[in-house]
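Internal QA ticket QA-208
Title: Verify multi-chain structure generation after dependency bump
Assignee: T.L.

Test input:
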Amino acid sequence: MEKKDPAVYSIGIVEERTGLTGRQIRYYEKMGLITPERTEGKQRRYSEKDINLLLKIKQLLSEGLDIKGVKEKLKAIKEELDLKEDLLNSKYSVNIPGRKEISSLYPVSDRAALIELLTEKEKNKKD
DNA sequence: GTTCTTACA
DNA sequence: TGTAAGCA
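Actual output:
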């Protein structure tokens, strides 16, 4: 089950796929909302998850949150995820639940981000 | 031509 | 946020 997510998208591609301007994308990065990789030439390279994260940010922003609010929201989601991860790795877990089941426990609005972050966690443990 | 940073309106 | 300058 090789599930890699290399950062291969240029900022131009990300603009098209997220509907955001390069200006906004760079601004969110400066605000600490995203951390894309860099090529040797210092150009930004985004992964599939970065794009999903950008879309999540865009959604939260459209819901009235400001940059600070989005940052806190993303942090909250991550903490929630770490908590669930502990349960998954717990010695008390007899039956390891599948990601699908886990995600179903979450409200639809947070499911996308949850799955996305969980996938990242799983990948990091494998590497 | 694309992207990057800095800076000004 | 848009745009321009000067680079890579």
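Spot checks passed. The first strand of chain A starts at residue 37 and ends at 38.
Status: verified.
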